[in-house]
Amino acid sequence: TITRALLHSGANIKEMNLVRRHLSAVKGGKLATMAQPARIVSLIISDVPGDNPTDVASGPTVADNSAPRDALRVLQRYGITIPKPVSERLNQPAGPMENAATGEVRLIA
């Protein structure tokens, strides 16, 4: 898998999560978008340096400001071969994350 290749490549957790956010249907604020109009309260227990909510579990309820091409650059930096559909997806322009990550984000540990 791409995640496994990233793990073995030496990519750091921020880089891995950036790629995962762009390849997932729920990460990078997409879960919060799908849950609308429900009120979201994220109680986050961090296991990543810096405790950035975007990096914890790849931020399913936190809007992502990165672009798909940022993820593609990470994969290229580590020489990770990706299937054509993934390459096409990551070469798309970034779309707006309208109304993503509504509600509260609380770092509790």
UniProtKB/TrEMBL annotation:
Residues 2-90 form the MOFRL-associated domain. InterPro entries: GK_N_sf, MOFRL_assoc_dom, MOFRL_protein. This is DUF4147 domain-containing protein.
